[in-house]
From TrEMBL:
Enzyme class at the top of the EC tree: transferase
Residue ranges occupied by any HTH cro/C1-type domain in the UniProt entry: 12-66
InterPro entries, alphabetized: Cro/C1-type_HTH (IPR001387), DNA_methylase_N6_adenine_CS (IPR002052), Lambda_DNA-bd_dom_sf (IPR010982), MeTrfase_D12 (IPR012327), SAM-dependent_MTases_sf (IPR029063)
The species this protein was found in: Pseudotamlana haliotis
Catalytic activity, reaction form: a 2'-deoxyadenosine in DNA + S-adenosyl-L-methionine = an N(6)-methyl-2'-deoxyadenosine in DNA + S-adenosyl-L-homocysteine + H(+)
One family name in Pfam for this protein: HTH_31
Entries under CDD domains matching the protein: HTH_XRE
Keywords: Methyltransferase, S-adenosyl-L-methionine, Transferase
EC number(s) stated in the UniProt entry for this protein: 2.1.1.72
Molecular functions per Gene Ontology: DNA binding; site-specific DNA-methyltransferase (adenine-specific) activity
GO BP: DNA restriction-modification system; methylation
Name this polypeptide is given: site-specific DNA-methyltransferase (adenine-specific)
Lineage of origin: Bacteria, Pseudomonadati, Bacteroidota, Flavobacteriia, Flavobacteriales
């Protein structure tokens, strides 16, 4: 059926969600009927070429890339009901694999941007607000410390002003993305484009079951896609061991794999559970990431409270995990994929044995935060905090109250508080009375 094959609808939905638009807003701005847009995104109909051109212009996205996807979907639509359609499709696939390139070069390839990945607590929509306050309330452009970097969206913004940016996160999957986006080692883009082409022409029918597909296939990922993911991950590892990839190329490929499979996951954005319903089959569409030219990144994977005793800077941005949800458990599949130790898995969510568990998610959070801010050798502290301390969910309830964090910061410096209402979760709803993001800006007292 068409609704299980079409891919341009998935692409258009991903672009829209990544850029933060709601469907009605796109309909209003492009004059494309809301119902038509919904049917296009769910794969129930193909867009017309003028519609694709209008959407490409609105999203500031490559028109050529979308037109190519539209053409490929039309081809699939034409051949799927032909008796020899599948054989003809595989012949075309082989011609692509051994003849034409899917991508000619890195410069002209459509690439994943840093903000394309889904991540709990992502500050993408708040970064401009955060950085505007920091710029107006602080002095100095030497070293910016992002001690809980997460997706590194705030750190990346800081790179526009500061000479040195320190990134730190305890997760393996986040650390490898920093190495990929901000590493300084030279890498061969032509080599990685060739590999991207190779991965995009894999035939899952010819791939054997592997660690990834046996554990996660039919649960977190569609079965055939999971075989491709496992194959690609093993191939990356093999090429690294054979010295066919340097450490930066290795990191770029691993990060590109994470970004590629992020929107294919049968989840709501994290891996605490999977959605228990049939998974729509979609193409892998492996793409590389857009790396950064910033040369002043210093990258760590350490316990934040230990690291702060060995670094110093102008300002530290602090956004720890305030509630009981451990990020190493939320993103256990990415942690597993990056480390590739193939551990034994447990429970319905197929998690390995716990590691990298944060004290900020426990009753020790208050004392741990106090220790952190007291030992940070900086002029300023910028601390993000949201009011999920009012949450009805026990796991979402903050381990440090608003009053406690205010008291701790006031004890180490002169503190100002800024707040902003914002959209929460992925509902598109904004509650101006209840859901707020706070930013505390503290000028530390001289010792």
């Amino acid at each position: 059926m068409l609704d299980t094959i079409v891919s341009i609808g998935d692409t258009l939905k991903e672009i829209r969600e990544t850029k933060g638009f709601h469907l009605q807003e796109v309909a209003d701005k492009t004059s494309i009927n809301y119902t038509s847009l919904s049917r296009i995104e769910t794969g129930k109909r193909l867009p017309t070429k003028p519609q694709v051109q209008s959407l490409a212009q609105f999203y500031s996205y490559s028109e050529n890339d979308l037109i190519r996807q539209l053409i490929s979907d039309k081809i699939i639509y034409e051949v799927q009901n032909e008796d020899l359609g599948l054989e003809g499709f595989h012949l075309a696939e082989q011609k692509l694999k051994y003849g034409l390139n899917l991508f000619n070069d890195y410069k002209n390839q459509d690439k994943f941007q840093l903000q394309s990945r889904r991540y709990i607590g992502n500050k993408a929509k708040l970064t401009d607000w955060i950085m505007e306050i920091i710029e107006s309330e602080t002095e100095g452009n030497g070293t910016f410390i992002d001690i809980f970097s997460g997706t590194s969206i705030v750190a990346k913004s800081a790179m526009e002003k500061y000479k040195t940016v320190i990134l730190n996160d305890i997760l393996y999957s986040n650390n490898v993305t920093y190495q990929a986006f901000y590493g300084t080692l030279k890498w061969n883009s032509n080599k990685l484009v060739e590999l991207a082409n190779e991965y995009n022409t894999l035939n899952s029918k010819s791939i054997r079951e592997n660690y990834f597909s046996k554990n996660f296939g039919g649960k977190f990922y569609e079965k055939e896609i999971s075989k491709q993911i496992g194959y690609i991950r093993q191939d990356i590892e093999k090429k690294k061991k054979n010295n066919e990839l340097n450490s930066r190329e290795y990191a770029i490929l691993l990060t590109s794999l994470i970004y590629t499979i992020d929107r294919l996951a049968n989840t709501v954005g994290h891996f605490d559970a999977y959605i228990k319903k049939p998974i729509t089959k979609r193409p892998l569409n492996f793409k590389l990431i857009q790396t950064s030219d910033f040369k002043g990144a210093k990258i760590y994977q350490e316990d934040a409270n230990e690291l702060v005793r060995n670094i110093k800077g102008d300002i530290a941005y602090i956004d720890p995990p305030y509630n009981s949800r451990q990020y190493s458990r939320f993103y256990h599949i990415y942690e597993n994929l990056v480390q590739w130790k193939k551990p034994k898995l447990f429970g319905v969510a197929l998690k390995p044995e716990p590691e990298n568990m944060s004290k900020y998610c426990t009753v020790q959070a208050k004392d741990t935060f106090k220790d952190l801010v007291e030992n940070l050798d900086v002029k300023y502290l910028a601390v993000s905090y949201n009011n999920t301390y009012k949450s009805k969910s026990k796991s979402s309830k903050n381990k440090i109250t608003l009053e406690e964090i205010t008291e701790i910061l006031n004890n180490v410096g002169e503190t100002k508080t800024f707040e902003q209402s914002h959209t929460y979760f992925n509902t598109g709803k904004t509650d101006f009375n209840d859901h707020k993001e706070f930013l505390f800006l503290t000028k530390k007292y001289d010792k």
